[in-house]
Write a structure and sequence with these properties.
The chain has 352 residues and is of the alpha/beta class. The chain has helices spanning 8-19, 25-61, 75-83, 85-92, 105-113, 126-132, 178-189, 204-213, 225-232, 255-260, 262-281, 283-294, 298-306, 317-332; strands spanning 65-70, 96-101, 119-123, 137-143, 150-155, 170-173, 198-201, 218-222, 235-240, 249-254. The protein has three domains: 2-45, no CATH class; 63-145 and 248-345, D-Maltodextrin-Binding Protein, domain 2, CATH 3.40.190; 147-240, 3-Layer(aba) Sandwich (D-Maltodextrin-Binding Protein, domain 2). Helix content is 50%, strand content 16%. Strand 6, helix 7 (178-189) and strand 7 form a beta-alpha-beta unit. The protein is globular, with a radius of gyration of 27 Å. Residues 65-282 form the Solute-binding protein family 3/N-terminal domain.
Length: 352
């Protein structure tokens, strides 16, 4: 394959040397010279080809703006924004990036439905509601997170001792969130129906205020807000998500963006992977970084960081099946209006 880069005259010299080779200083010098020249020509040809590809990529991406939605509490995208490396990488590729902050996953995916963002990260429940509502999104990777990183809590002095005691009680959680699913599975495991509790659909900030004031009986919440209330207040866990919910996170992208710019999506996922490795190896640094962002003490954030897992992983059949179970559960209790198939919106481009 490499001989196509060599002129005919040079090929004749190489053939002659190989056919009439004698161990001599002249023969060795000539052979080395020829090999060196051959390698130089090949490297030059490959470099020219790579340069051409790079220029073509920059031209194709010229003027493209990658619009990312993020939540401050979603460590990786928040860190990716503040570290600034992604902007430099996209500039090299001919594109640029903008960021939009959201208080939770559902409004972020509403923005994706409106065509306002191209990429984001949420817990396991928001993409199910979004798919049922017709949002043109794709699952592009998942984050293992941890079932220990979400829980249903009550004040330490509460008479509520078990999940079964939540019958007739007011439980706060964000509608359509990962903790929404945790509540469903927890009450079912305790022998209750979802209709046996009084859901209070509140954002994390509003739920904490209601919980502290005693206006709700229990609160289902995820890290780092869970770690923060554990650090600041005397609370007791009724259960975490162990054996109830996988509590994964998902990287999601707008279908049209994936179709038009798969190279930029892969670049984005590569940069996310780099930040993931940094976060995995530096929980104390992550806590210090998030403290001013979230207004949560670093000591609490460090607890949250040490009990979670990071990753940018391709979706497996097992992961898709478990996500489908969540979708089926929400349909069964009429939280989503129609049955969906998660596998229909899974991107396979990151499998290698």
């Amino acid at each position: 394959m490499l001989t196509k880069y060599l002129p005919n005259r040079l090929m004749k010299i190489v053939s002659s040397l190989l056919q009439n080779y004698e161990i001599s200083r002249i023969g060795i010098f000539a052979l080395f010279f020829t090999c060196g020249l051959t390698l130089t020509l090949v490297i030059s040809a490959c470099s020219a080809n790579n340069t051409g590809n790079s220029v073509a990529t920059q031209t194709a991406n010229q003027g493209v703006v990658v619009r990312i939605g993020y939540q401050k509490a979603a460590t990786i995208l928040s860190a990716l924004k503040n570290r600034g490396n992604l902007g430099q990488t996209l500039t090299t590729a001919g594109a640029s990036v903008t960021w939009a902050e959201f208080p939770a996953g559902p409004p972020m995916l509403e923005a994706m439905n409106a065509g306002s963002i191209d990429f984001g990260y949420t817990g396991e429940s928001p993409p199910i509601f979004a798919q049922a509502g017709g949002t043109p999104l794709l699952y592009v990777a998942y984050d293992p997170w941890s079932p220990k990183a979400e829980a249903i809590i009550v004040p330490k002095a509460s008479p509520i001792k078990t999940v079964a005691d939540l019958k007739g009680k007011k439980v706060a959680f964000a509608k359509g969130s990962n903790t929404n699913y945790l509540v469903v599975k927890a009450v079912e495991a305790a022998g209750l129906k979802y209709s046996d509790i009084q859901p209070a659909h509140l954002t994390p900030a509003d739920a904490r205020a209601a919980f502290t004031a005693g206006n709700v009986d229990a609160w289902a919440i995820w890290d780092p807000y869970l770690a923060a209330v554990e650090h600041d207040t005397k609370v007791r866990k009724l259960t975490d998500a162990t054996n109830l919910a996988p509590n994964r996170g998902y990287y999601l992208a707008r279908q049209e963006f994936v179709k038009s710019h798969p190279d930029l999506l892969k670049t984005l996922l590569d940069e996310v992977s780099i930040v993931n490795k940094w976060a995995t190896n530096n929980p104390e640094e992550v806590a210090k970084f998030l403290e001013p962002e979230l207004g949560i003490p670093a000591a609490a954030l460090e607890i949250a960081e040490k009990r979670r897992k990071y990753g940018v992983l391709p979706l497996t059949d097992e992961v898709i099946t478990q996500q489908q179970n969540i979708a089926d559960t929400f349909y069964k209790i009429k939280l989503v209006p129609k049955q969906i198939q998660v596998k229909d919106i899974v991107w396979n481009g990151n499998k290698s």
